[in-house]
Automatic annotation (TrEMBL):
Pfam family, one: Porin_O_P
Leader sequence segment: 1-23
InterPro entries for the chain: Porin_dom_sf, Porin_O/P
Keyword Glycosyltransferase: no
Name of protein: OprO/OprP family phosphate-selective porin
Coiled-coil intervals, chain numbering: none
Taxonomic source organism: Lysobacter koreensis
Gene3D superfamilies: Porin
Record's keyword annotation contains Signal: yes
Keywords: Signal
């Protein structure tokens, strides 16, 4: 659309004219509000070594790789008048709104405020961290599958530099036809050690929301944002009332090293669907452990319960990072019935969405103050039970396969990923 192209042009122009500094570009003081401008442009490349499913987004082009402009974000921010702050963000690539909200700091304390509008909900350490400083190209399986991102709502936070509690009530996403379902959430964070270059963090979160339209589908790509298929997938779970997710998180920063982990357990309440073989409820889980090393010696900061990424000590040579992450997800809650009549209802008791483990090795280069280059290698180990039914013989199988029937299938691809990023 024209708006998207115009917005992207403005974003790219800002990259060219922005000064070589990581901070936002100050614009003006309007109605006693100090207005500034930020932006983020990311371009990704994925090369797939397929195993079972064809992960190429355009399976007909004969290629084993995909490339895409991933994000083109522009953000206006304002401070003032008084204790008010506001933000207006838009992603021209995805054609959707980002943070669009106003915040009022109570008593002048930055960790004590009320917030109205669209914002990231209080769950997931990785989700709440800045996208431009992601440790790996794709967010973790648990974040992408169970994390609740931006929604319209209201939030209240109380705390100080070492701890905080945030509660929220939220509804749909601001952009039409995206995430729906009203609910509530809460997150508590505590840093018993919070010193320069030495931080120990713990967090606990809980979100509970209406699944909307009584249908829910949980699925995950193999840690590759451009993959054309999700290789673990519950399919549409009907008669789903609400989803509740509890999450735990921990992080340790020691000089140039950072160790981080998160785990989430999700429960879906399903009302009686008239099928005595089918369990009313569904439980799933996911988590990750990651380690990062700043080879050039920089350490992280800590603010509002999330880490902050530093500038390079030597901008000319930049900051180099090495990272390793292990991800796991389990979307199985049921079992196959041996010898049953080959229909979807009789073959499975419960839901068998599959299991997946991935290892990601990555290297990041923050060059000067506005450029970042990332290279990741992902190795996947997954299995999923596929069903062939008389009504739809291969409905559950990937498009490139026409021979496998009612049995568990292993899918173990590997993926090479690259990202180029400009931000200001």
């Amino acid at each position: 659309m024209n708006l998207r192209r115009h917005t992207l042009s403005v974003a790219l122009l800002a990259v060219l004219i922005a000064p070589a500094a990581h901070a936002e570009v100050a614009l003006d003081v309007i109605a006693d509000s100090e207005v500034s401008f930020e932006g983020l442009v990311q371009a990704d490349f994925n090369k797939f070594d397929n195993d079972f499913a064809n992960l190429n987004g355009d399976a007909l082009d004969g290629s084993d790789a995909d490339q895409e402009l991933r994000r083109a974000e522009i953000v206006l921010k304002g401070k003032g008048p008084g204790n008010f702050e506001w933000v207006l963000g838009y992603d021209a690539k995805a054609d959707k709104y980002l943070d669009v909200n106003a915040k009022y700091k109570l008593g002048g304390n930055g960790n004590h405020f009320v917030q109205l509008g669209q914002f990231k909900q209080p769950n997931s350490l990785e989700e709440l961290s800045s996208t431009k400083n992601n440790d790996f190209i794709s967010k973790a399986l648990v974040t992408n599958t169970f994390g609740v991102a931006r929604r319209l709502g209201a939030a209240y936070r109380f705390g100080d530099v070492n701890w905080g509690v945030t509660t929220s009530y939220f509804g749909r996403e601001m952009t039409r036809n995206l995430a729906h379902g009203s609910g509530f959430g809460a997150r508590g964070n505590w840093a018993p050690i919070n010193e320069t270059g030495n931080v120990l963090h713990f967090g606990l979160s809980y979100v509970d929301y209406d699944t909307d339209a009584d249908t829910l589908r949980l699925r995950a790509r193999p840690n590759a944002d451009l993959a054309g298929q999700r290789i673990v997938d519950t399919g549409n779970m009907t008669n789903a009332d609400r989803q509740a997710t509890i999450g735990g998180e921990a992080m340790w920063i020691s000089g140039p090293f950072k160790l981080q982990t998160e785990y989430m357990q999700a429960s879906v309440d399903r009302y009686n669907n008239g099928n005595p073989r089918q369990s009313n409820d569904f439980d799933a889980s996911s988590g990750y452990v990651s380690g990062l090393w700043n080879i050039t010696g920089e350490s992280w900061g800590y603010k509002d319960g999330v880490p902050t990424t530093p500038l390079p000590n030597n901008p000319g040579s930049g900051m180099w990072q090495l990272g390793l992450r292990y991800d796991t997800i389990d979307l199985n809650d049921g079992n196959a019935i041996p010898g049953a009549t080959p229909t979807a209802a009789s073959l499975v008791n419960g839901v068998l969405g599959g299991e997946m483990d991935t290892w990601t090795v990555g290297v990041n280069w923050y060059w000067r103050s506005n450029f970042k280059f990332m290279l990741n290698y992902v190795k996947v180990d997954s299995s999923r039970y596929f069903i062939r039914t008389p009504a739809a013989p291969y409905a559950a199988l990937p498009a490139n396969n026409n021979m496998l029937v009612n049995r568990e299938v292993d899918d173990n691809p590997s993926i090479l990923e690259a990202r180029v990023q400009f931000y200001w």
